Amino acid sequence: MGQSPDSSTYNDEGIGVPFFQGKTEFTDTFVKVNKYCSEPKKMAKEMDILMSVRAPVGSVNLTDQACCIGRGLAAITPKKGIADVWFLFNALKTMERQIAGMGVGSTFTAISKEDMKKIKIPVAPLRLQNQFSDFIKQVDKSRVIAQKAADRYDQLIKSRFIELFGDPISNPMGWKIGQLSNLTTKIGSGATPSGGKTAYNGTEISLVRSMNVHDALFDYDELALITNEQADLLSNVVLQEGDVLLNITGASVARCCVLPSDVLPGRVNQHVCIIRPDPTVLNSIFLNHMLISNSFKKYLLDKSKANGATREAITKEMILKLSIYLPPLEKQNAFALFVEKVNKSRFIDLFDERCKFVLLLYRWHRYFDGIECFLRKMSHCTSVNLR
User: If you placed Cys at 200, which of 67, 69, 175, 224 could pair as Cys (CB 3.0 to 4.6 Å)?
Assistant: First the structure.
């Protein structure tokens, strides 16, 4: 189990070892390094499985290097000759909801080391595990290639933004400055329907939550749907095409994207703020990329931690008072067109990688005489406790 070091030893300059507090840096497979720690207390080894043990419970990722883990994580090391790391990792991924149900606590759910030891894992013969591992490595290689391509496109857009407009904090090009309250037609956040997740039983109205909002990316995974009656109670936060969404609380604070039109009709909960630019002076895509630029992101994060707050938060008042530079609208629109072209190229590249992934799945299906056959084999495997 992890143990959080003193916060004074955290840094983002690469001093010490990578540090992970919880699942904030989790990706599909390998955890992403954002912070470092110069005086670690608890370490995980290279290729350990990291499990989130404090809300949210059960999510897993791999680490490709030794790292420090905080109290929100636990490290799992597979026993050699019994469990292959890729097999165990994917087995745990399929059990995330089941493990989440083991969490206890009225405010924040958590599981203990003893709880983890009781998790039962089906253990296939090592030969079958190794075959599965070889397949997953091919899939992960395809994912890595796609991610590197996506990172290149992201960097291209960031570089173009700075080239056209300069740093948004220092404003070296001397653009006109405006206050966000005067450049928007709406700024506001919503609420969560009573009942939490159990209340998301609608079919037509989207409820956007912080987990859906990433930098320049909307994540459709776990997009909640609410009823018309619940939506009526959130009539002050009706989403519109072109809205910019900004996370305003918690570990994902300051993440920001433009709302995709296919999410409409929709509302937001209290952790997400709608920023609706006045289209006569401010382009949504330009505003989005300004807010997620390195310097402005740091500025927002610093403001979210101001006044000794224990939980990161950006208030509506802070957003209303934000001062931003304002290049001519035609320049903003030209940048937005550039972003759209880059994203089309990104889609084509990612589509090619998805085709390779589908081919791998087909080969896997043929090799095991069908996925159903493989699952039947798994169902006959011996189950053992995670300990």
Answer: 224
Question: Is the fold of 124-172+327-387 the same as that of 176-326?
Answer: no
Q: In what order do the strands lie in the sheet with 224-226?
A: 224-226, 205-208, 266-268
Can you give the pTM of this predicted structure?
A: 0.67
The pLDDT of residue 145 is 77
CA 367, CA 178: separation in Å to the nearest integer? 62
Tell me the DSSP string of 173-231. T--EEEEHHHHEEEEEE--PPTTGGGG---SSEEEE-GGGEETTEE--TT-EEE-HHHH
Question: Rounded CA gap, 236 and 231, in Å?
Answer: 10
pLDDT tens per residue across span 29-58: 899 998 999 999 999 999 999 999 988 899
What's the DSSP call for residue 15? Answer: -
Residue 266, token pair as written in the block: 């929709």
The better pLDDT of the pair 32, 145 is held by: 32
Whether omega before 78 lies within 30 degrees of 0, making that bond cis, reads no
CATH number of 176-326: 3.90.220.20
* CATH architecture type of domain 7-116: Alpha-Beta Complex (3.90)
**Maximum mean pLDDT: which of 114-118, 149-153, 281-285, 352-356:** 281-285
Distance (Å) of CA 82 to CA 124, 382, 387: 9, 12, 12
Q: What is the structure's pLDDT at 36? A: 94
CA torsion sign for 309, 314, 315, 318 is positive
Query: What kind of fold does domain 124-172+327-387 have according to CATH?
Result: Helix Hairpins (1.10.287)
Q: Which two tokens stand for residue 209?
A: 């939550």
Query: What one-character DSSP code corresponds to residue 28?
Result: S
The full set of domain ranges for the chain reads 7-116, 124-172+327-387, 176-326
Helices 284-291 and 294-304: angle between axes, nearest 10 degrees: 70
The span from the CA of 251 to the CA of 304, in Å, is: 10
Q: What are phi and psi of 190, to 5 degrees?
A: -110, -135
Q: What does the alpha-carbon distance between residue 111 and residue 55 come to, in Å, rounded to a whole number?
A: 9
Closest CA to 271 of 303, 237, 296: 237
Question: Which DSSP category does 29 fall into?
Answer: S
How many whole angstroms separate alpha carbon 99 and alpha carbon 158?
Answer: 39
